[in-house]
């Protein structure tokens, strides 16, 4: 074994255990925060209201 393999690092010097730990920590809330930060809540509410109004208008005809 070379020196890096003995210390738990890859040949590039990456600490594999630390990377796995970081990936596990970020995976737990990855999608929730990613999509929430990109969503304009007010715009979605406005679109939903418009769609509901149009649906009600069409149902009345």
Report on the architecture of this protein.
- This protein is mainly alpha-helical.
- It is built from 4 helices and no strands.
- It has helices at residues 3-6, 16-27, 30-38, 41-59.
- The longest helix is centred in the C-terminal third of the chain and has 19 residues, at 41-59.
- The model has no long low-confidence stretch (mean pLDDT 76).
Provide keyphrases for this structure:
61 residues, rod-shaped, mainly alpha, single chain
Q: Structural class per helix/strand content?
A: mainly alpha
Work out the helicity level: over 70%
Oligomerization state of this entry?
Answer: single chain
Individual helix count: 4
Give helix and strand order, one letter per element, not per position: HHHH
Radius of gyration: 25 Å
Strand content: under 5%
Please state the average pLDDT score: 76
Low-confidence stretches: none
Q: Calculate the terminal CA-CA distance, rounded to whole Å.
A: 79 Å
Shape: rod-shaped
- Number of β-strand runs: 0
Q: Tell me about the largest β-sheet.
A: none
